[in-house]
Amino acid sequence: MDSLIPRTREEIAPGAVHVPDWLGLEEQRHLVRACREWARAGMRSPKLPTGGVMSVRTVCLGWHWIPYRYSKTLEDGTPVMPFPDWLADLGRRALADAYQRPADDYAPDVALINFYDENAKMGMHQDKDERSEAPVISLSLGDEAAFRFGNARTRTKPYRDLILTSGDLFVFGGPARFAYHGILRTTPRTAPNIGMRTGRLNITLRTSGLTPQE
Ligand SMILES: O=C(O)CCC(=O)C(=O)O
Ligand SMILES: [Fe+2]
């Protein structure tokens, strides 16, 4: 039945906007190539303070995320890769299209690139390690994912479940900035031909609110 519902821009909650098919196939291929380059530095499953290990594999730009803080260096002391200007431009374009207003002052300085194999998921969580209330931009590539977007008070209902497909943009800011969200599952073999055989990539752009001395 899903295929009968038109995929158009939709405000999922105040401040949270889903823009299906925001990236064209060429832009998706370009981002997949960029992710491949970044992945050469190594993608690792973040280790949680509880002793658990996340099922996604991650590489960061700008600031390295260690649950639950940001650092300029990786666990082994290597400097984090730089956050490229073109990605900030893409973020401004994404925000302007999602909110339908100019976003000239949006200045993301962190990207988390997550790879999901067919068994990976992400539990309900808030993105709250940033010291900024600037919106988070999420771009999806590859296999489809079931995404749950909830509320800022609890990790339970009310929430909305939606499918994020390759090329989709999802923005959460304003009253939705600290809403709980997670990935329930991905569906293998649902990706278009964008240069990845299997799995899903998600890129989030964020504003750390940090200065490099910290
Ligand atoms: O993979 C997604 O769509 C969400 C990723 C996410 O929530 C995160 O990286 O904090
Ligand atoms: Fe998140």
From TrEMBL:
Entry note: cofactor: Binds 1 Fe(2+) ion per subunit.
Gene Ontology biological process terms from the UniProt entry: methylation; oxidative RNA demethylation
Claim: Glycosyltransferase is one of the keywords in the record: no
Cofactor requirements of the protein: Fe(2+)
Amino acids binding Fe cation: 125, 127, 181
Presence of keyword Transferase: yes
Keywords: Dioxygenase, Iron, Metal-binding, Methyltransferase, Oxidoreductase, Transferase
Protein name, entry field: Alkylated DNA repair protein (DNA oxidative demethylase)
Coiled coil: none
One family name in Pfam for this protein: 2OG-FeII_Oxy_2
Positions with a binding annotation for substrate: 63, 68-70, 129, 155
